[in-house]
Amino acid sequence: MSSSSSLASEISQAQTGALSAIAGASDAATLRAVQADLAGKKSALTVLRSQLGKIQDADERKSAGQAINACAQIIEAAISERMSLLLAGERAQQVASEAMDLSEFVSAKRRGSTHIVTQATQRLEDVFIGLGFQVAEGPEVETDFYNFEALNMPKTHPARSEFDTMFIEPASADQEPNSVLLRTHTSPVQIRVMQTWKPPIYAVMPGRVFRRDTPDATHMPVFHQIEGIVVDKGITFAHLAGIIEAFTKAFFGNEFTSRLRPSFFPFTEPSAEFDIRRANGAWIELGGCGMMHPNVLRAGGIDPDEYTGFAFGFGIDRMAKERHNVEDIREMYTNDLRFLRQFS
Amino acid sequence: MKILHSWLNEFADFGNDVDAIADRITQLGLAVESVDRVGTPVKGVVTARVLRLEKHPDAAKVTRVYVDAGDGVERHVWCGATNMQADDIVPLATLGTNMPDGRVITQRGILGIDSEGMLCSGTEIGLSSDGSGLLILPKGTALGQDVYEALGVDSDVVFDLDVTRNRPDCTGYLGVARDLAAGMGKQLTLPKVDQSSTGKSLTVPVDISAPERCSRFTVQVMSGITVTQSPDWIARRLARAGMRSINNVVDVSNLVNLELNQPNHAYDFDSVKDGFIVRLARSGEQFTTLDSVERTLSSGDLLICNAQDKPVGIAGIMGGLDSEVTNATTSIAVEIAYFEPDAVRATSTRLALRTEASLRFERGVDPYGAEFAVARFAELLRLTCPGLVVHAGATDARTDALPAQVRTTPVRLNTIKRVLGIDVTAKALEDLIAPIGFTIVKSATDEVVNVGIPSWRNDCTSEIDIVEEVARHFGYDNLGKIVPTSPVHGRLSDVQRRRRILREIVVSLGASEAMPNPFLAPGDLAKVGLSEDNALKLANPLVAEESVLRTSLVPGMLKSIAYNQSHRIRDISLFEIGHVYPQGKEILPDEFESLCIMVAGADASVAMDLWSQVSSALGVGAQLSQDQPPAGYHATRSAQLKRGKMVLGSVGEIDPTVLANAGIVGRVASLEVNLSVVLSEVPKPQSAQVVSKYPSSDFDLAFVVANSVPAANMVKALRQAGGNLLIDVALFDIYRGKGVSEDARSLAYRLRLQAPDRTLTDVEVSEVRAKCIAAAEKLGATLRG
User: Fold this and answer.
1) Residue A133 at interface with chain B, using a CB cutoff of 8 Å
2) pTM, rounded to two decimals
3) Which of B237, B318, B489, B534 is 20 to 30 A from B119 in CA distance terms?
């Protein structure tokens, strides 16, 4: 039976022993072993705690218990503090030992690239979507009706000869020659859109077109155009000029302006060429446009006395060519990966 | 159309600010493509007389010319031209002259013999567009003087206009001047002419047997003519318009054509005095045109013949040799006619013969311009023929097909407002279009105005044509710019959006987008194992190698791969999204959009992986039909992608023979998908499945499976056996080799079991495991230790 003073001294001894063991642990694993020992049945504190029952006096027992608990807390705090320190040291050591040269890696997969004509098309589509247009598409092999007749170019129209049309050989003897062709412009889609959609129509029509042109630095027999139409009540020439201006600024930049000057196309009247002007004052011819000819609206099943509309169009390939400073447009169609991969 | 500033200014006082004039012309719709200054004197070019010509035995292509430049010194000059002879007066660029093309004239000759200057063509010194020989100056020109002074040449400006098809009036000065005068608010002044006739009546009868094709034919006889040289100013004007001066009669004819846009023809009177017959050619009829080419005509061509039915010209295109004005001519018959434009164009196109006359007739000349033009002809000819007699009795044969002198069209003022957005009163309308010859015939109502169309504007037929004239003269810039507020929701369609997603996926899989030529050579399809029977052929290909339209993207992709391989490019992975055009039952082909991805040096498993990525990204599926290899694919390493009977695409490796034909080394993995089908199959939104909160149990199973059993069947069997508890099964390793028999492979699967509502017991897990093993064993698989 120990006196209270001897108990106090035993607690103090146990604490000193424990703190010294904790301080002596040089790594986390040792500390964990120390921690386990201190919590174990044979540890000094556990033994003392087990002897508490033998103290007869209740007050004395209580104060002895509190002293043991206080000692246990001190030990626990010391373990926790020591553990943080050891772990931090160990991680610092790990980080230091794991140094890696990040430029030393093997690329699993190289990203491919979209064609610059596709990129240009998508940029154009996005600008027009922002202006409230939808995107329409149509077939590349067309009938004479959609490519010419419906666009106010009846059979004998002189302008037809300017399109350098590539015709499809008739499939059978009863098919009229030259009645099927490769579309020479995206304008047939105008007619198809008007026939199937209802006004108000705000549509752009990008796509592949064909002309019987010998390839050179600026021409390909297969190239791409984008064309737009707006058909609604109350659409005027001022709206055409407004859309061209809005497009010019949105696509080329705010420092660009546009102008329209009279020209001639069979499918629009009044017709215009549209030019854009760089900040340096130089005018660049971009495309053609105009108010849709009443005959074209009629061919699309739209009453020209009720609705008016305008149309505009221009080449996409040139946009891509000039954006990327491609010298010869034929470069864009060699499908050489050394060329294609530049634009991913 | 080349327009000289000085000549244009004769019609109105347009001033000398050529840039402002050019800008105004452009703003009126006649795009000025270039503005060139001509006749700017080249200092040091003097007049010289040719003394004699000599050939040198060692220099066959050049002539030694001895000239006198007025100082009595005989100069020797080497010359490559051949059109000069002794006594001709020619331009001599003296030593040290800086030529407009940058050359400096030096003494350096050939064969060691110096050249003391250079004799010049009109082109070389900016005096004409004729560079075919030396410029020969008029006889009697003083020697040794500045050639520009000798010719009285002023510098001038040439505007080159791009005249659009809707401006038949602007292939002549009068039309351009009329538009520009209106556009600049200037008074238009026509040349003064005397329209009276002076001589005795001389009538040339005209018989028109093709009244639709020739609706007006006028003939004016003139006599008292001496055929001689034109005055310098006429020769120079013609030269600057790109024409050669021939003689006074022909030059006047050309000048009237340019000035008044009125083609005309002067015949030697004797050859046509008995009359003209205007008739269709007989098929195969021969006729020799002025350019000495014998032409074979067809029954659609229109001929002008003399009374003996002997052709003297192809109507509206070119005259013949026999009836030409000669040096002996003293009387002429001047023909001014109106021919139907489309037919002139057809003949001109068929004969590939385009002339100053045909280019005007095929657009449509003024059918009522004959009187003024013939008077102007006489006026100009009188400059060299003071004794000219214009005979009474001129012929004016007309047919019912002749367009009315003033055609009218009703114009609703509201249409102008609806199309142009501006309010225009009848009076304002008149102010805008009267200066260019349109008339307000009568206001039908307050809202509708009848507009008279001038006879030189055959392009105008209806209301909208008048609206355009209003817009041009009101000024496009003055119509304003308003950005319309679209009531439509601007967006991509589902198909377009999915196409963009697909492109991104394919690019992220490493492929670069190619755009091969959609035209193939005959045999290209056969080379890739496809039939050409359903391929469209071009009726007029540029070259035979590009005469077949593709029915598949494969030939173009293989060509691209071969191209890249031949340039030693590594990691070739290409794709295309494009249309193919197989012939169908309708008039238009069964055109559809296709995707093709090809990876060089990769096997069929790479193609399958591409398909699995693409199909998962697009949310579409297909059955893999390996027992029906697609045409052109490796027979044992490819499959059709099918949906019932519908073929969605192909996947696998390209057939080795096809690769060999294409010159490709190594394997090529390929995936083709019909995008017209799969892009439009927008999947329904996926409903969310509750993620189980209970732990899962994972285990691996490796089986030895005979090669004859498709891996897909194994997965299917495992799935069935695993039931609802099997939430995931994945093939993670394939092994062939040591420890596995040659006709089999080891397939290792990772399986995960999980219940939504409880933790699975060990018993449950081993039950499922046993079922899976049993199912695999049914397929002949054996579990590996």
Assistant:
1) yes
2) 0.83
3) B237
